[in-house]
Specification:
The chain is α/β, with parallel strands linked by helices and 254 residues long. It has one domain: Class I glutamine amidotransferase (GATase) domain (Rossmann fold), CATH 3.40.50.880. It is 35% helix and 13% strand. It has helices at 2-25, 51-62, 92-97, 101-108, 140-151, 188-193, 204-210, 240-253, and strands spanning 29-33, 67-72, 111-112, 123-126, 156-159, 182-183, 214-215, 225-228, 231-234. The strands form two sheets. Strands 3-2-1-4-5-9-8 form a seven-stranded mixed sheet, sandwiched between helices. Strand 1 (29-33), helix 2 and strand 2 (67-72) form a beta-alpha-beta unit. The chain is globular and about 45 Å long.
Length: 254
């Protein structure tokens, strides 16, 4: 009888330890939202998301033990803007990505936005590239997710053309979410410099101002990011790590 009782106690203790370890090992989840759009207007050229703006924040968080889940409007393969693959735009993070079969598989099998539950995540991050100007700016599931994250006081972060996903988001009162808030994004002069001002569906800086945003920026091609409450925005590819740092600060502060 004593032997059986001892076995039972050991079993209960082992199960409790296993449950405790499973709970402690459960990773905190961050949602990354990428574009599914791969056509650069009527140019006949491809576009998509900018690989550096994904890779740097992705490894920034995964290296710290966070789980990053990637979603797109259509699910499946997220299109990388081939322009961002050019040698002059490579960074240590992009080089790491192109040698990382596991993360490449993540981008080949992204979740569909319509299946995402905001309660599963502590924050959401939108990398840029020109693709979001066409799909995420108008995607109802993306708009709903941003509203839910923002209203739940969870940090919502964007970089470069990522803020295009904000232009049609409204708050509970029906006002544009960016109205009266300090926002940055890829600016008009940077768009002019890459000669795409007449190709994109709208100038992002101008559209944000039109929606009532207090638009601010740093020098062209410099690292610049700003926070207004739980809304975080970065200006350009050079700002991706700074946005990730600010996002992590808010995650830890919540």
């Amino acid at each position: 009888m004593k032997t059986n009782l001892m076995i039972l106690l050991v079993a209960i203790f082992s199960m409790a330890c296993f449950a405790g370890n499973a709970q402690s090992n459960k990773k905190t989840k961050i949602l990354f939202v990428l574009t599914s759009h791969n056509k650069l207007g009527n140019t006949g050229k491809p576009t998509g998301f900018w690989i550096e703006e994904f890779a740097t924040p992705y490894y920034y968080f995964t290296d710290k033990g966070y789980e990053v889940v990637v979603a797109t409007p259509n699910g499946g393969q997220a299109p990388i803007d081939p322009k961002s693959n050019e040698p002059s735009f490579q960074t240590s993070s992009t080089k790491r990505y192109f040698n990382d079969a596991v993360t490449q598989k993540v981008l080949a099998s992204t979740k569909k936005l319509s299946t995402i539950k905001p309660d599963d995540f502590v924050a959401v991050f939108y990398p840029g590239g020109h693709g979001p100007m066409w799909d995420l700016a108008n995607d109802k599931n993306s708009i709903r997710l941003i509203q839910q994250f923002y209203e739940s006081k969870k940090p919502v972060a964007f970089v470069c053309h990522g803020p295009a996903a904000l232009v049609n988001v409204k708050d509970k009162k029906g006002n544009y979410l960016v109205n009266g808030k300090k926002i940055t994004s890829f600016c008009n002069t940077e768009e002019d410099a890459v000669q795409l001002s007449k190709i994109v569906p709208f100038p992002l800086e101008s559209k944000l101002k039109e929606r009532g945003a207090i638009y601010v920026k740093g020098a062209d091609w410099s690292s610049f990011a700003i926070e207004d409450g739980n809304l975080i925005t970065g200006q350009n590819p050079q700002s991706s790590e700074l946005v990730a740092e600010k996002l992590l600060g808010q995650i830890k502060g919540n």
